[in-house]
Design a protein that fits this description.
Glutaredoxin, 7 helices, 42% helix, alpha+beta, 4 strands, globular, four-stranded mixed beta sheet
Length: 161
């Protein structure tokens, strides 16, 4: 094979891998609403009283340490914090920020007071898989997600993460 043949083949393989890393072709890469996440991602809603809360930072660090697992399971770190602009997102794990109005609606929907630290793992259909008052380890997230019917189906698909 010549270099002229190898380069397109490698680029094609990389593009295919990138497309499979996304939850689905109809899914936004960085969704900005809960509706856009539905059917595409498993939001990890992390409610925190402040962007500087040590528990919020700990949760981001736990996700970063297992970034590949989070991507494979379409977990999307979604902080819900009043001073959201000051949130330090994970370096490698997938994440998004909700607009202020959407974040307020999410806080109200899940009945989380502004001064509480709460982590909610939602399934792709929006069902609450876990509610915790402290950061959640990646292995616990993986175990919960891997027991769901949707995740078992994902693992059966060819080229699935």
């Amino acid at each position: 094979m010549t270099l002229r043949q190898i380069v397109p083949a490698v680029l094609g393989a990389l593009l295919t891998a990138a497309l499979h890393a996304q939850a689905g072709p109809h899914c936004q890469v960085v969704p900005k609403s809960m509706a856009a996440m539905r059917g595409c991602y498993r939001p990890l809603l992390v409610f925190s009283p402040s962007a500087t809360d040590a528990r919020l930072r700990r949760q981001a660090a736990l996700l970063d340490a297992a970034a590949d697992d989070m991507m494979d399971r379409f977990v999307l770190f979604t902080p819900v914090v009043a001073d959201e602009q000051r949130v330090n997102p994970p370096a490698d794990a997938p994440w998004t920020k909700l607009p202020e109005r959407e974040a307020a609606a999410v806080r109200q929907r899940y009945e989380v007071p502004a001064d509480a630290f709460t982590v909610l793992l939602l399934d792709e259909d929006g069902a609450v898989l876990l509610r915790s008052g402290s950061p959640i380890a990646a292995d616990r997230l993986n175990a919960l997600i891997d027991r769901t019917a949707r995740r078992r189906a994902e693992m059966q698909r060819p080229h699935a993460n």
